[in-house]
Amino acid sequence: MASQKPVIVIIHGAFFSPVHYRRLIEPLRAQGYVVVSPPMPTTGLDDTVAGKTYVDDVKRLLEGLTPFLDEGREAVVIGHSQGGIAASALTEGQTIEERKARGLKGGIKAVIYLTALAIPIKGASLAGMLGETPPIYRVEGPFYVLTELALSSESNDMRVPKDEQTALSKSLVHQSKASLEAPVQFTAVDVTVPKTYIVCTEDPSLPPSLQESMAQAASAKVVKIEAGHFPFLESAEKATEVVDIIVDVAGQ
């Protein structure tokens, strides 16, 4: 089964959902890849997300991925932004070598971090790294909720064409407060498969210097693109750059 194209797992970031990653998902499927990209339980608009952390995200991902691995399929995992935390944790016990040692077929062959939290220190959290709550979101009950600043031209985080900003703002969801505060127990350093870090050199949300330091700590190969935090939303061209990198890693 290893001769088949690997399954591609795309893990979305905080406040977002799989629909925002169509410029990655659809071209990959058009090239014959199976893409697994479920909505994470840490994101949503009701109290079901309360208390949910990356551990719950990993459980959801395994529900979708495990049937393919049990068939002998290999997988490449891509984590964007906060999705990098779950991308690291998803590999625990699920690499090709680890599954083989348990008499199981298939497994994860590589991880790609797309301007993502490849947290290198056990016990660290996103909230701890930030130090204080950014002005682009606020606490509301069990959620973090995006503020108007998040999509304004002043924040410069989205870099989304103006004619698409209104539709985007209406489609974003809340984020579990616990998910940003949970200490990471399986880090990017613990990941044993080949790692690639896509550094977005114009990202105001996750500074390139921090991206590169996380990549270095995780011993990840660095690939740089001139883009902000959401290259797949900036333009079709930027999305294609990301797709090309994914396809390159998948073919190795």
Beta-sheet strand percentage?
15-25%
Number of helices: 10
Query: Over all CA atoms, what is the radius of gyration?
Result: 17 Å
Low-confidence stretches: none
What is the 3D form? Answer: globular
Strand order of the largest sheet: 2-1-4-5-9-10
Mean pLDDT: 90
Percentage of residues in helical conformation = 25-40%
Class from secondary-structure proportions: alpha/beta
- What is the N-to-C succession of helices and strands? EHEEHEHHEHEEHEHEHEHH
Q: Report the span from N to C terminus.
A: 15 Å
Find the count of extended strands (DSSP E, 2+ residues): 10
Main sheet record: 6 strands, parallel
Describe the structure.
The chain is an alpha/beta fold and 252 residues long. Helix 1 packs across helix 10 (236-250) and helix 2 packs across helix 3 (83-90). A six-stranded parallel beta sheet has the order 2-1-4-5-9-10, with helices on both faces. It has a four-stranded antiparallel beta sheet with strand order 3-8-7-6. Strand 9, helix 8 and strand 10 (221-225) form a beta-alpha-beta unit. It is 35% helix and 18% strand. The model has no long low-confidence stretch (mean pLDDT 90). It contains ten helices and ten strands.
